[in-house]
Design a protein that fits this description.
heterodimer; A: alpha/beta; Rossmann fold; 5-stranded parallel β-sheet; 3-stranded antiparallel β-sheet; B: alpha/beta; 4-stranded parallel β-sheet; disordered C terminus
């Protein structure tokens, strides 16, 4: 059983955080001419779509969006019992010389991002790769940091940070949960 | 969800869900083959051995490339260069490979059941790459993948398998697979090359193309092994080509969007007319590409799993 402990962001909070991140992406890259977003499956995908929409509202221009499945690049495939199902990576644009903004829901150990970096570099040579996350909960195991953070959330390692998005979960919410099983 | 088995010995023992999982997993693999950098690190540190007691170019190369694209170390052993010529038994050869650290042994053997014997003696995964006249499961999987990709689904399609059904492991694996997936399968060939009791597998036998081809969505043309003619199973190659060769005219009896498939290597002008092999209906080259993708999927599904589950964040 997962018991909800604290609500970190509600629907309005998520909306405001994404609006700010969209502005930051535009500011940092001086426009979005060369920018493309890549969402990490699963919850990075709707977040990337929302960011693209917000950027379009501000700049009048849709940036390309891709979807990345990092399963094949995981470093724990030989040790996990439940074999993850592989989904398609859908990146219809060339990553060469683009500024790629990776989008994910929660930044934790950094291992997903390590896998995503390898996966993207196998597709080409971007000019730069940046990282946008909705929540950064700490406990990094690798030297990785985010360029854009919706909310920094101090957590204990036992806690679980769950992101719910309407596209997949019928509600918008970021919560800290505790496994009471 | 994964494959909850160590080995892939045949299509007969697979469930519909398992077949679907393999085909679904092959889709993202197919994208990797299309990329400029055809390499993912998934099977880094795994050793894969191709143990082939019968000649093969495409199946062996396909497995080798599949392993290499997934970053496994692949080694090929063919009997002519192995200790089998010194009289070593199959079991001892395989055991030797295992204690050297092989994680997956892919075997092709002239005797039906050889992979099954190996699977009992090895803790490594065993993949059947063709055993006697019994099964060739990865060929059937790549055929089903190709049909599903082109037609959207397999269920409800009419599939005609043409040629030497009696000696064909490709036919047997496809019959089990396609009927499981809900296709209507018929087999067409001279009566000497149709095994007695074939109808018990749920297929309709015909002894002429004119009876079997009308309404077909897919025609799988089998290779005629020319040595069968010496055994008197059909009078001459020319007569076989005249009666059972798949010509453009005969393809016209099937549905207008029929797919023509062939496991290779082809005898052009015997079981298949050159203009049919090169026609818009032909997906013979796609089958080869898809074969690599399906084998990558299988290697992933068989080689993963182990300790406690941990999410990465």
């Amino acid at each position: 059983m997962l018991n909800e402990k604290t609500v970190i962001l509600d629907a309005d909070g998520i909306r405001r955080a994404l609006t700010r991140i969209a502005h930051e992406i535009i500011e940092k890259n001086k426009g979005v001419n060369n920018v493309a977003l890549i969402g990490i499956r699963r919850r990075g995908v709707p977040l990337a779509e929302r960011l693209a929409k917000k950027i379009a509202e501000i700049e009048g221009r849709y940036v390309p969006i891709g979807i990345l499945d990092i399963t094949l690049y995981r470093d724990d495939l030989t040790t996990i019992t439940h074999q993850p199902v592989i989904h398609k990576t859908e990146i219809a644009f060339a990553v060469n010389n683009k500024v790629i903004v990776l989008v994910d829901d929660v930044l934790f150990t950094g291992r997903t991002i390590r896998a995503a970096l390898d996966a993207i570099i196998d597709l080409g040579r971007p000019e730069a790769i940046q990282l946008a996350v909705l929540a950064d909960r700490g406990h990094r195991e690798l030297p990785i940091r985010a360029d854009y953070v919706g909310k920094n959330v101090p957590t204990s390692k036992k806690e679980i940070v769950s992101v719910y998005l309407t596209e997949l979960d019928k509600k918008d919410k970021v919560v800290i949960e505790v496994d009471t099983a | 969800m994964g494959l909850s088995r160590k080995d892939l010995l045949g299509i007969q023992e697979l469930s519909v869900e398992e077949i679907q999982l393999i085909l679904d997993t092959a889709e993202p693999m197919r994208d990797i083959i299309r990329r400029q950098i055809k390499k993912v690190p998934t099977l880094r540190g795994k050793a894969l051995i191709n143990l082939f007691y019968e000649p093969s170019t495409r199946t062996r190369t396909s497995f080798e490339l599949a392993g290499k694209y997934m970053s496994a170390d692949t080694i090929n052993i063919s009997t002519s260069t192995s200790s089998a010529v010194k009289g070593e038994t199959l079991k001892d050869t395989a055991k030797t490979l295992e204690v050297m650290g092989a994680d997956i042994v892919i075997i092709r053997h002239g005797a039906a059941g050889a992979p099954h014997i190996l699977s009992k003696h090895l803790s490594a995964s065993v993949i059947n790459a063709g055993d006697g006249f019994h099964e060739h499961p990865t060929q059937a999987l790549l055929d089903m993948y190709t049909i599903r990709e082109r037609k959207g689904q397999i269920s409800g399609l009419k599939v005609a398998i043409v040629g030497d059904i009696l000696h064909s492991r490709v036919a047997r694996s496809n019959i089990w697979g396609l009927t499981k997936m809900g296709a209507e399968v018929c087999v067409i060939g001279p009566s000497t090359l149709l095994p007695p009791g074939i109808a018990e597998l749920g297929v309709t036998p015909f002894t002429s193309l004119e009876e079997g081809l009308p309404g077909a969505d897919v025609i799988i043309v089998l290779r005629v092994q020319l040595e069968r003619q010496q055994k008197g199973l059909f009078p001459t190659i020319r007569e076989y080509a005249r009666l059972f060769g798949v010509t453009a005219e005969r393809v016209g009896m099937a549905k207008p969007d029929v797919l023509i498939m062939h496991p290779g290597p082809m005898n052009r002008g015997v079981e298949i007319a050159p203009e049919v092999a090169d026609s818009v209906h032909s997906v013979i080259n796609e089958q080869v590409t898809n074969g690599v993708a399906v084998r990558m999927a299988l290697l992933y599904l068989l080689a993963g799993g182990g300790g406690p589950h941990e999410a990465i964040g």
